[in-house]
Backbone:
């Protein structure tokens, strides 16, 4: 509208300006524009006040999204608490967490299936741009590469308040929309996006021709040729030769770490050429000359874990194995038994069945890519005599796709997923494994990502700090996208030519299930296959179950995972040791303190006695770990009830108490969820004044009452009993054989708790019981968790009573730590079960190999036998009772 | 005659509009109840712009959004049935209202608070229509060609027909005692003697449990069961069609609450004859309607409260409950009632 | 007068249908429409559905339907009996007990046969 003062006739000047305004505001229809404005007002108001989000959580941010619905924040005030499971009824997609390549096609399809008008909130750093996981090979660098985003919320994770703010921002945006130019009413605007394809990598069909062109030119290979590669170290040798070999090993490792290298890379990134640049590529060859012999002494004490069988016992065991299975079966290498591959199954059988200490529990299994071999190593423990951990090593050919090792699937079913993971990540085949398929990545993915010679699409340097992240003045840094020839997180081998075969309907992760193994009725009816997840209200994240059902009965079930595979291990091998702490927070994002604990222990084991935490730090660690346990079990019980159909009420009551604990964490560490609080040899900060008093208050006054409340209302509820008793039974033998851990194992009446089995920190000083359940059913898993909270409260009461004053770190706070070369496996009893960190250090600033034994992942192995023959409703409950967290399952 | 018809039409329009408006607000109330059950506040923003408190305009916002939302019809559905299902759901829920008296009815009342008075098979009609609602669900689930919806539909078909039987049998006792199928007569009997819940406690419990199952409310919401089947039978429905299932469900809740109050809680009467049933007049009629409404509101709140408190049954337990507990129990209840009534007759 | 009442129900039916169809028409007119291949795909948690949905489904559900027919007819018989019970005398009670016992035997038989057991 033109300025009215100019065109207004003279007589109108008698109307004073206030009245004029009033008239314009309140006299209704004055022009077509005004009418449209009114329509807009109503139209926008309807949409803004009724934004129903799609019930869909990806990662850590999803937890905060759920908290936003809890009583403390209450997203319901904005009318947005109606989380719809089906995209057909949703208005708003909150992309809450890391978007992985495996998940991207699903997200795109869900987005397409939402009806117009639809909005997207990108919640958190990961969804916005890849966040801390951006460099990962399976991470999409921002959801906006595919979907149109309306509001970005910063934070990692954003707090619930931030999400609410994001929602308000979206409402404001909606307020500014006009029905006349709304894109969903316009015929010329394409709203839906083509679904990307999981081919050799995640292929965007909009740019497939360009991708094919660039791939054919081999631009990625050309780029990589110039980059410094990670150097490989030789595998540890039997003790007789260790004098030479370890020297070399340490030397080779040291070579990877001359401080000048970063400068070299930076220089290269800027396009300069330094005279030394040529030496970067053959670093390993050039290194021995520069090595200092003194480094040889800096090897960590050879021991597989802090509590183990011991050198004497190991020698006896080796001698016994040689005597039983023929001389030369095993040899002792760096406090582990090196077994010839062909003897592996025999050795495992002997250890499990005949050995005086029966090694019935396969604690962990992982692989290391050495210069001369790929080593698979196994940690065994005995539930009969806990704490006698031993390590077995098997070595196989190093070349890609050549490695082959006999599978232990038939001896330890717990090896099932772990062997598949090694196959997926290293390309080692396990002969005799009935279903050797990729587990985290998808069939058809072109690489084996944990091999040392695999360089991620955004690869810049063997170790951090990456040149792209070094900001030396304005304009000196660059984005990771700029280094990749495709301009995005994409890498396709030059040899790939089969572009025509890519179709958006393909589902390389799903495996059609064969007709069911159990026959339930004589009359012939058809069964059908249904996919539960990855976007499903009760799979606790982006987990997927392929079900074959006959009526309501499950006759076949295959868990499908990897939708949250954020390349934790690969990133961990580039991080410096200290830098990795915040990444461990994001494994099991409900228990960040516990994750910190395990990682700190692993590196402290390598560092030896100098890194022993002072008393106060030990107490703080225990307090934090036990608070975490209570918070995690609260969450778990609440959401188990939710899975049983109690609509969020128990869950939200559980969150109330968890919030109090998170407040304590925030006060001490500065962050609610991702605490990043532990340091090697202690903790990051001392407790603030008043903290202990508040903690005492929470522990003494609140937690017990809450547990009593849960016990009173839930434990004897008829429907809960009906749904839980006798469902999903796991016998003790099964539980051990499937390597389940934590409350799942203990509910099956196996008193195996790392805090007692292999005591760490100062747990041996506290009085608490290891809780077991009699039947191993769903109810026991619930009840064990409930009682464990009581035990945790007991420990906490002792800890807050006895905590001494004193330092919190053995030495000074430092950003550079020296970790001697060696190998360590640390185990902590996390709320979900045994959390293990396997670290191989080569003496440099970052880990050579870093593996996480994740309890959620391995507990899932037992899901299939627990569910078969039960109903769909039970599957949901059983999955809830396993208490998985996808960040940890897929890592 | 024409005037009568127009009068009735007006009455129908008023009743239907009020019912639909109430339903919209019931969804709001449900969200508020959920919020208070969970120690939250619930919707309180919508309407703030106009100075209306407590988010009272939330249902309007939801409605405005739903009407203007794209109505997706997936490609693989059976189109006619897919379109028909929500219509059936809502029509069945609405016409059940025809014989439900929402106030005193009788030749000497100033007005008949009932759309179709003098239908002497009152309850039978309600049940007949009520069982039509299952068609809406089955057709929705089947036509969607979606596995979750399909499972939801199958569950619902078996569940609803199973609970139809105890539902029908549970009120037989009341019918037998009052000697009529007409809801007015049953209310009048209760007013003369005593509330139905006193003479038929088991019948009341059977009715309550079956009514929960018939309305698909937790702990019997298996056709929807969000945690298992995402959305159950309405998984593939969007926008207004989805909203219509919602409306249908809440209309059912209203009908069932009315029935419970009329059959077992004395309808518009107060205990100890505090309210003279024979009094005729505008004020007394309004007061009776209010009494009935109040009781119905309490019943609806009870149904909501249960939803936000209990977990869900498993499917087989649900069927066991119907066939192994409720049906035998209702048979026993019927025989016992008949025998006692016979004893009373013969002792006179 | 009785017929009138059913006319009222007919009227209500008309109104109900109007109220049910009207929103659908309104939505069809004013709501946006954007079609795409993925949108018309079946929803199954974000993946494409595999295999048929309309299959020969499990018999268990239908057995309940058969049982239902028996018992529902029984209930229908019981209603007129209950209404006029006052005037029928003691013999009606005995008759009905016989009727119910026969039915209960049927239920017990089905129960013993395992029909009611959900497998």
Residues:
């Amino acid at each position: 509208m033109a300025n009215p003062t100019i065109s207004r006739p003279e007589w109108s000047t008698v109307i004073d300006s206030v009245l004029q305004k009033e008239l314009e505001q309140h006299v209704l229809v004055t022009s077509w524009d005004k009418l449209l404005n009114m329509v807009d007002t109503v139209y926008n108001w309807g949409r803004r006040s009724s934004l129903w989000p799609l019930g869909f959580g990806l990662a850590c941010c999803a937890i905060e999204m759920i908290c936003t619905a809890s009583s403390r924040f209450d997203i319901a005030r904005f009318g947005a608490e109606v989380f719809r499971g089906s995209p057909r009824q949703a208005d708003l997609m909150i992309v809450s967490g890391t978007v992985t390549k495996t998940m991207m096609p699903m997200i795109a399809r869900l987005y397409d299936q939402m009806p117009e008008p639809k909005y997207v909130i990108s919640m958190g750093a990961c969804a916005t741009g890849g966040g801390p996981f951006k460099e990962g090979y399976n991470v999409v660098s921002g959801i906006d590469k595919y979907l149109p985003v309306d509001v970005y919320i910063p934070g990692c994770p954003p707090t619930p308040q931030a999400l609410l703010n994001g929602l308000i921002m979206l409402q404001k945006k909606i307020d500014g929309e006009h029905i006349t130019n709304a894109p969903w009413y316009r015929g010329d605007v394409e709203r839906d996006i083509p679904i990307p394809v999981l081919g050799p990598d995640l292929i965007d069909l909009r740019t497939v021709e360009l991708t094919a062109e660039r791939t054919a030119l081999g631009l990625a290979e050309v780029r990589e040729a110039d980059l410094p590669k990670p150097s490989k170290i030789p595998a540890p040798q039997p003790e007789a030769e260790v004098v030479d070999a370890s020297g070399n090993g340490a030397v080779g490792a040291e070579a990877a770490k001359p401080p000048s290298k970063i400068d070299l890379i930076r220089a290269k990134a800027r396009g300069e050429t330094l005279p030394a640049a040529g030496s970067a590529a053959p670093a390993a060859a050039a290194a021995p000359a520069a090595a200092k012999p003194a480094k040889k002494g800096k090897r960590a004490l050879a021991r597989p874990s802090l509590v183990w069988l011991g050198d004497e016992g190991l020698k006896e065991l080796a001698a016994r194995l040689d005597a039983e299975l023929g001389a030369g079966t095993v040899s002792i290498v760096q406090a582990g038994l090196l077994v010839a591959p062909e003897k592996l199954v025999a050795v495992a059988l002997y250890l499990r069945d005949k050995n005086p200490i029966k090694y019935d529990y396969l604690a962990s299994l992982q692989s290391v890519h050495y210069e001369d071999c790929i080593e698979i190593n196994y940690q065994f423990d005995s539930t009969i005599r806990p704490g006698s951990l031993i390590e077995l090593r098997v070595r196989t050919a190093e070349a890609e796709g050549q490695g082959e090792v006999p599978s232990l699937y038939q001896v330890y079913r717990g090896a099932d997923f772990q062997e598949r993971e090694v196959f997926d990540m290293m390309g080692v085949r396990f002969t005799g494994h009935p279903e050797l398929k990729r587990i985290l990545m998808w069939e058809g993915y072109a690489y084996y990502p944990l091999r040392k010679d695999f360089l991620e699409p955004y690869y810049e340097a063997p170790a951090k700090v990456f040149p792209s992240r070094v900001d030396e003045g304005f304009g000196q840094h660059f984005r990771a996208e700029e280094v990749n020839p495709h301009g995005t997180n994409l890498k396709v081998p030059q040899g790939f030519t089969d572009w025509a075969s890519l179709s958006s309907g393909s589902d390389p992760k799903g495996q059609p299930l064969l007709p069911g193994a159990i026959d339930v009725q004589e009359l012939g009816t058809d069964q059908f296959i249904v996919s539960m997840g990855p976007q499903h209200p009760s799979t606790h994240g982006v987990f997927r179950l392929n079900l074959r059902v006959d009526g309501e009965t499950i006759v076949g079930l295959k868990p499908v995972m990897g939708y949250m595979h954020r390349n934790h291990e690969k990133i961990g091998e580039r991080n410096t040791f200290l830098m990795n702490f915040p990444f461990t927070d994001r494994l099991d994002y409900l228990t960040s303190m516990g994750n910190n604990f395990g990682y700190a222990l692993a590196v402290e084991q390598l560092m030896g006695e100098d890194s022993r935490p002072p008393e106060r730090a030990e107490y703080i660690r225990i307090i934090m770990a036990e608070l975490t346990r209570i918070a995690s079990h609260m969450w778990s019980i609440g959401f188990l009830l939710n899975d049983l159909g109690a609509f969020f009420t128990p869950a939200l009551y559980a969150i109330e108490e968890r919030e109090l604990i998170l407040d304590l964490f925030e006060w001490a560490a500065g962050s609610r969820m991702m605490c990043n609080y532990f340091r090697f040899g202690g903790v990051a900060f001392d407790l603030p004044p008043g903290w202990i008093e508040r903690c005492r208050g929470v522990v003494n006054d609140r937690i017990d009452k809450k547990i009593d409340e849960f016990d009173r209302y839930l434990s004897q509820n008829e429907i809960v009993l009906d749904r839980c008793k006798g469902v999903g039974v796991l016998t003790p033998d099964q539980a051990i054989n499937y390597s389940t851990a934590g409350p799942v194992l203990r509910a099956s009446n196996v008193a195996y708790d790392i805090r007692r089995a292999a005591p760490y920190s100062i747990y041996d000083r506290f009085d608490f019981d290891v809780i077991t359940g009699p039947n191993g059913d769903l109810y026991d898993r619930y009840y064990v968790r409930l009682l464990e909270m009581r035990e945790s409260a007991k420990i906490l009461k002792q800890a807050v009573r006895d905590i001494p004053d004193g330092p919190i770190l053995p030495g000074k706070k430092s950003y550079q730590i020296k970790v001697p070369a060696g190998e360590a496996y640390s185990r902590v009893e996390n709320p979900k079960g045994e959390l293990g960190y396997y670290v191989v250090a080569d003496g440099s600033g970052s880990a050579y190999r870093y593996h996480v034994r994740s309890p959620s992942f391995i507990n899932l192995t037992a899901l299939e036998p627990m569910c078969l023959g039960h109903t769909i409703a039970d599957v949901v409950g059983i999955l809830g009772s396993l208490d998985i967290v996808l960040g940890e399952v897929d890592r | 005659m024409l005037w009568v018809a127009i009068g009735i039409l007006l009455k129908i329009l008023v009743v239907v509009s009020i019912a639909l408006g109430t339903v919209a607000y019931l969804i709001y109330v449900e969200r508020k109840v959920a919020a208070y059950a969970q120690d939250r506040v619930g919707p309180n923003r919508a309407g703030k712009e106009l100075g209306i408190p407590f988010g009272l305009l939330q249902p309007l916002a939801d409605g405005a959004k739903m009407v203007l939302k794209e109505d997706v019809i997936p490609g693989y559905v059976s189109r006619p049935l897919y379109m028909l299902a929500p219509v059936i759901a809502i029509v069945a829920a609405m016409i059940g209202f025809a014989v439900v008296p929402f106030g005193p009815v009788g030749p000497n009342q100033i007005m008949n608070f009932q759309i179709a008075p003098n239908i002497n098979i009152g309850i039978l009609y309600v049940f007949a229509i009520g069982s039509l609602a299952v068609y809406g669900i089955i057709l929705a689930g089947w036509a969607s060609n979606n596995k979750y919806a399909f499972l939801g539909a199958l569950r619902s078909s078996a569940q609803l027909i199973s609970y139809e039987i105890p539902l029908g049998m549970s009120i037989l006792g009341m019918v037998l005692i009052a000697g009529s199928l007409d809801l007015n007569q049953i209310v009048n009997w209760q007013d003369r003697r005593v509330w139905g819940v006193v003479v038929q406690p088991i019948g009341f419990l059977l009715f309550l449990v079956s009514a929960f199952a018939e309305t698909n409310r937790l702990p019997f919401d298996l056709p929807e069961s969000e945690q298992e089947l995402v959305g159950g039978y309405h998984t593939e429905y969007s926008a207004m069609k989805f909203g219509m299932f919602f409306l249908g469900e809440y209309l059912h809740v209203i009908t069932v609450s009315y029935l419970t109050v009329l059959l077992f809680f004395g309808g518009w009467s107060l205990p100890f004859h505090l309210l003279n049933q024979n009094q005729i007049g505008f004020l007394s009629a309004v007061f009776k309607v209010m009494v009935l409404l109040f009781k119905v509101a309490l019943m609806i709140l009870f149904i909501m409260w249960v939803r936000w408190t209990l977990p869900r049954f498993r499917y087989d337990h649900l069927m066991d409950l119907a066939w192994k507990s409720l049906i035998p129990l209702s048979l026993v209840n019927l025989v016992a009632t008949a025998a006692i009534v016979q004893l009373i007759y013969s002792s006179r | 007068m009785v017929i009138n009442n059913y006319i009222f129900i007919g009227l209500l039916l008309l109104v109900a249908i109007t109220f049910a169809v009207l929103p659908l028409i309104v939505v069809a007119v004013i709501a946006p429409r954007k079609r795409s291949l993925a949108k018309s795909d079946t929803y199954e948690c974000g993946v494409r559905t595999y295999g048929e949905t309309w299959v020969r489904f499990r018999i268990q559900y239908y057995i309940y339907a058969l049982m239902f027919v028996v018992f529902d007819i029984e209930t229908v018989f019981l209603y007129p009996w209950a209404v006029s019970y006052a005037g029928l005398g003691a013999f009606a009670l005995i008759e009905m007990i016989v009727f119910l016992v026969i039915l209960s035997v049927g239920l017990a038989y089905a129960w013993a046969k395992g029909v009611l057991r959900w497998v």
Observations:
- The two ends of chain B are 46 Å apart (CA to CA).
- Chain B touches chain C through 79 residues (CB under 8 Å).
- The CA atoms of residues 86 and 309 of chain B lie 28 Å apart.
- The mean pLDDT of chain B is 82.
